[in-house]
Structures are given as C-alpha cells and as structure tokens.
Amino acid sequence: MPGVEAGGPGERGEFAFKFGGEELGHLHGDHVAHFGFPRELGAQLREQGRVGPHPVNRHSTKMAARRIEGEADVLEVIELMRLNYNRVTARDGSPAEAA
Q1: Using CB atoms within 10 A as the burial measure, which of 1, 46, 82, 84 is most buried?
Q2: Is the peptide bond before 9 cis (omega within 30 degrees of 0)?
Q3: Residues 33-47, buried b or exposed e (16+ Cβ, 10 A)?
Q4: Is 64 a residue whose pLDDT tops 60?
Q5: What mean pLDDT, rounded, does the chain reach?
Q6: Of 47, 45, 31, nearest to 87 (Cα)?
Q7: What residues contact 16, with CB distance under 8 A and at least 6 apart?
Q8: Backbone angles phi, psi at 47, to 5 degrees
Q9: C-alpha distances in angstroms, 8 versus 18, 36, 64, 89?
Q10: Closest to 5 in 3D by CA, of 24, 23, 18, 15
Q11: Are 36 and 23 in contact (CB under 8 A)?
C-alpha cells in the first residue's frame, strides 16, 4: 500500500505497519496480528467474527487480535490492514497528501 512503512522488531518483538505515523496493525511472528480500531468498528468486526479480543485488554473493542493459522487467516489479516489503511487515508488524505 502506498506510503506504508514496515518496521520491527518493536519492544515486544512485533513487526508494525504504519501510515503517517499511525499504526495500522502489527504482527507477532506468524501466529497473531493485533489491531486498533475505533470502538464501533472494532465491535462490528468482533460481532462478525473477523477479530477477537486483544490479550492486553480483552474488554476494549478498540483493541483486537486475529490468530493466524492458515492461508484464509493471512488473507483476512491483509484485509484488516487494508481496512485500517483505507480508514486512515480517507481521514488524512492520500499518501502524496500525507507526505
């Protein structure tokens, strides 16, 4: 995705993907992805079964996790990253505008 920066490892070994300084999500190895969403969107994604609770704060709908156990999960993690990318670029502008 244009303008996305990938970097890691972070303090907890995570590999983060960011746009304009905002994290779109991060991976912990090849077994789980973590995301931050607005509360309402996070709640919708949980209801749809696309994400589950984040281990740090299981009650917050802003924080979410997705286990990676197969190809379908990999594709869903990519879609969730894209969802955050589209949300952030709609709010902050295109990659060229954000630069």
Answers
A1: 84
A2: yes
A3: bbbbbeeebbeebee
A4: yes
A5: 89
A6: 45
A7: 6, 7, 8, 10, 23, 25, 26
A8: -60, -35
A9: 11, 18, 19, 22
A10: 18
A11: yes
